[in-house]
Amino acid sequence: MLFQRLRSFKAALFLIPMLLLCACKTELMTSLAEDDANVMLALLLQHGVRADKIQQKDGSDTLRVEQAQFAQAVALLHEAGYPRQSFQSMGQVFQASGLVSSPQQERARFLWALGQELSRTISDIDGVLTARVQVVLPNNDLLNREPTPSSASVFVRYKDQSAAQHLVPQIKQLVADSVEGLSYDRVSVVMVPVAQKDMPAVASVSSSEGYWTGLAMLPAMLVALVVGVFVSRRWPDLPERFRFRTK
């Protein structure tokens, strides 16, 4: 019996510092797709940030970094254009629901979904940081001899000196070919370059520094452990008394 108690006590002494080391990390990004989490994790590790990722029950990933490097990690990801904007697909916009939509609502949803799909495609171009596409399909009268033509506007933020700045004709052609009745000349594109500064310096945190930070809390944890053992031995039925009084 004594041997088992000593072994349990030694195990507790070993686990407490390990738990404290885990507690030194804080969440940086949550609800991330696996691909985005992997890219951001690789970027952080390449620049000396002590980071890791954990998978949540819903399948999404969470990025964690050392508390001392949190600000630098945020600046680093922001400079690289992360987290990337998320878009809704046609299937998500038009997913089945129990409500019956009016023709105007269906039209608005279609235009929104079309803009989302085009924005997603343009965002996949190398060097593009942000993309927004607005499509206008006039509700022309069939008897009108001069119908209003369709139009579209595209806003793109891209990394300066990247190849994206030379792709305006291709972007216009892509949008024109994706919308029925839309001509090339009715597509306007606004390109905004974003100067890429030098990546922010990241303060290095050695493993020993994180260890000693957690170890500084060890005395308080040991005191709490000893007090808990003493109380449980001195008053073994205390939890039962407490539950009885709270009823």
TrEMBL record:
The chain crosses the membrane at residues 210-231. InterPro entries: AMP-bd_C_sf, FliF_N_dom, T3SS_SctJ, YscJ/FliF. It is a lipid-anchor. GO terms for biological process: protein secretion. Residues 26-191 form the Flagellar M-ring N-terminal domain. Pfam families: YscJ_FliF (PF01514). PROSITE patterns: PROKAR_LIPOPROTEIN (PS51257). Residues 1-22 form the signal peptide. It comes from the Bacteria. It is found in: Cell outer membrane. One of its GO terms (cellular component) is cell outer membrane. Keywords: Cell outer membrane, Lipoprotein, Membrane, Palmitate, Signal, Transmembrane, Transmembrane helix. Belongs to the YscJ lipoprotein family. NCBIfam families: III_secr_YscJ. This is Lipoprotein. It comes from Acetobacter tropicalis.
